[in-house]
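Data card: per-record layout.
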Amino acid sequence: MSDNIFISYSSKNKAIADAVCHKLEERKMKCWIAPRDILPGANYAEELINAIDNSKLFVLIFSKDSNQSQHVLRECERAVSHGIPIVPFRISDVLPGAALQYFIGPQHWLDAITEPCAAHINRLADTVQILLTQEDLTQKSAGEALIEAEALAVQRQQQVLRMRRTSIVLAAVVVVLAAVGGGWFYTQQMNQASLNLVPFTDKAAGFQIQVPQGWTKTQPSPPGDPPVALIVYLPTGNQSENLFVNNVSAKGADFDNVTNANLNTAQNLLSSNQITIQESGLTSLAGQNAYKLVYTINSSGLQCMQIWTVNNNTVYQLTYNAQPQHYTQYLSTVQNMVNSFQFV
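The structure for this 344-residue chain is written out next.
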């Protein structure tokens, strides 16, 4: 048995089935979906049977149309007979008919009958990703695991929304120009190595960083405020030019989900012509997997570098903002500061 996910659907629901497939594969999960994965000249029925038999999970796009589909019914029957767990994704406010209820009636299902459907597809992807980590998924245990996985997926989505509200994501960067936003752009750098860096430690926030001696710094947020732990101002006299550190406590925070939330926001800002992205990709911070985003805020010309990671249920984000004439001048110093960042 492979880790493939078989997607069963009525042809009338192909658009949603394709969207589900795209989202799962975007998360690096392998899917099998007809007719895309049927080889030219191959026997259609044999290909379906082999695909179901070699799947770890069976995602059913359940609607009034699939409820009446004999093809979907036979696919569900095959999955149950071979012990393949079924994950029903209900997109219509209907109950399964007698024949289909025999196979999925006892199962918990994921409801997706309200708009926007994309939010439900994200929750489905989170749930399936959790289920795939299970070593042994029998039909009975899969139903119990599905309930637990969905609850955890909802919790993770709530954490991402909470991080958005605390201005950890890029939308707040654009709205609050000087206090939020960020990015790195590795361009020509002027030497700032002669500056004396001294350690700054915030044990409550859980980090230490080296900062240039003589640069103004502040800790603006008492408990309960947006979690900006530290702001270090460039010596330019412009307070919008700075490096600052966010730390957001989020129990169970997942690096992939945080990154997806930030990148989705960045894509929306890019689509609305609010930012121009110069660089985007994986990096490291304090020895942890991290993500780096470099962009310009089009309305002000402010250049930004942003890097984030997750450690011990806390999201850490470092942000560098500067006008173009100062960005490269101080970039090597900021690079040294970020390289010195560590958890305590």
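Known properties of this structure: Residues 4-164 form a domain with the Rossmann fold fold (CATH 3.40.50.10140). DSSP finds ten helices and 15 strands in the chain.

See the next section for split statistics.
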